[in-house]
Design brief:
Layout (H helix, E strand, L loop, with lengths): L2 H10 L7 H10 L3 E4 L4 E6 L2 E6 L9 H13 L5
Helix pairs in contact: 1-2
């Protein structure tokens, strides 16, 4: 099983320790580009599709609602099951 497959499984399980760096790695692998907005805002773009988030701070751990948003978006685009 590849590193990306493990990250997908980890994302789907919605762990309490999923980091922004792991999310970034996964989305960049899927072809998204990261665009820094004002402050902690960040947008991952691929063609006309955008995933808008706030970078977590002060820790690097993603919030559950952010994981839900990303999972739903990736499922809608058919990138994960």
């Amino acid at each position: 099983m590849s590193k990306i497959d493990k990250l997908i499984l980890k994302l789907i399980s919605k762990p309490k320790d999923f980091t922004y760096n792991e999310l970034r790695t996964l989305l960049l692998t899927f072809g998204y580009s990261e665009v820094q907005g004002a402050g902690s805002r960040v947008c991952f773009e691929k063609n006309d599709h955008k995933i808008k988030l706030h970078k977590p701070h002060p820790s690097n751990i993603m919030k559950l609602y952010q994981l839900d948003l990303v999972i739903n978006e990736l499922k809608d685009k058919g990138l994960i099951k």
